[in-house]
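CORE FACILITY INTAKE
Project code: CF-77B
Contact: R.S. (postdoc)
Sample description: multi-component assembly, four entities in total
Requested service: structural model of the whole complex
Turnaround: standard
Below are the sequence entries exactly as provided by the requester. Do not edit them.
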Amino acid sequence: MNAALACAGCPVRDRAACAVLSPQEREELAAAGRIVELARGETLFAAGDESDRCATLIEGALKITSFDREGTERVLALVHPAGFVGELFTPFAHHDVVALTASRLCVFGTGTFESALHRYPALAETLLRRASADLYETRELIGLMGRRSAGGKVAGLLLAFSRAASDSPCHGAPSFDLPLSRGDMAGLLGLTIETVSRQLSAFERDGLVRRNGARGIELVDPARLGGLVD
Amino acid sequence: MNAALACAGCPVRDRAACAVLSPQEREELAAAGRIVELARGETLFAAGDESDRCATLIEGALKITSFDREGTERVLALVHPAGFVGELFTPFAHHDVVALTASRLCVFGTGTFESALHRYPALAETLLRRASADLYETRELIGLMGRRSAGGKVAGLLLAFSRAASDSPCHGAPSFDLPLSRGDMAGLLGLTIETVSRQLSAFERDGLVRRNGARGIELVDPARLGGLVD
DNA sequence: CGCAGGTTTGATGTGTATCAAACAATGTGG
DNA sequence: CCACATTGTTTGATACACATCAAACCTGCG
């Protein structure tokens, strides 16, 4: 399953890190990579493994997680299409990377990618932009986790999902599907599954949201929901 | 207070981001920068301000913080000498940057720094390394905040400080001064001042640590303290 | 000495974890 | 096609850890 000529039809070809390369530079890089498909729940990288690969997500969704010694999962970040995963400068992976849904990726050896970094300075700058953006996102997450009330955490997460589901960056989508299970939401916010579930039920009881099945969410009163966020 | 020829005697000249530059490249960059001194509590960057400056910390310590609308401070990161602060690719600053102690910095306009980035590819790669490291550190912090018990959080923070205070990366320093006030520790861990104080008192009562004044800490039983972590 | 900031300790209530069980959705094999 | 297991979600009862409110206590400093 070689990717040598896949770039032309790649759905993220103008948003991924490699978009800064010229078409021919990109094909060179692609020749060294390969397409990998992951089923929901499959692990791409495992914490502690040798960090010898990195990847651009083409379609699907990933989570970056770590486990404390009690075995409770903490979700550290979500990865969306065009996102980049993998640790370039560390010998071993810090965290697990797991597919949330069936996913397709363009995988490279870290060695080949690092040499590309030297060859194409624009690539290094793009990755720097991405790393900076990831950093702000992770700090946003800290802000979310640090809220005092469980209601504020869940409300903030719903609004974040709403924004992510919308095309326009200013207004959020009024209705969307939750991309995460209750367990993953709990892991992200530092709560338990039961507490997340109860908060959602309470939001529905108070007329803030409507639910369609376990995953469907319609924001009835986003403003009041935002009011809960601290 | 121009820094044109300060590099030669700069205490972080071989650890800061600019260390990858040749001496003459570095002098060129330094000519565009200036030394800034901050007293304890002074603000370097404020959230919402135009993000037009960045800096390398020469000596002292900084904290990166944000405030929720109730006005409680959340500490997102600490910056140590040779660290780099400032947001290069965003128009406005996301967070506040405040001096924890009297500090000295080498400050640049983001414009001059970004053009240096283009001119010296090695600089971009170094900043990428730093940004990646900052990212892992921030995710570590999430792991710390996500612990279930307050005891685990405070214990984890003490061990992190112990490691930071030590020269060798493997063993932590057995005794050191807490670099943060109770309030800052609380802001870092998502607890209250009182809870942090009570946990420290409990650790002392149980023979895990000894205290010298408000800031001095001696780890009597680091292993048992580590056992509390999770 | 008196004051201000930071820290410690105490008493009390509440929010969330925990334990437990019912429930819905989905798939499996007979 | 229907019992049946499986996985994820919801709801309930209870206990406890932490936040909150309040006051005492250092410690350095004018």
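Facility notes:
- The mean pLDDT of chain A is 93.
- DSSP finds seven helices and eleven strands in chain A.
Invoice: internal transfer
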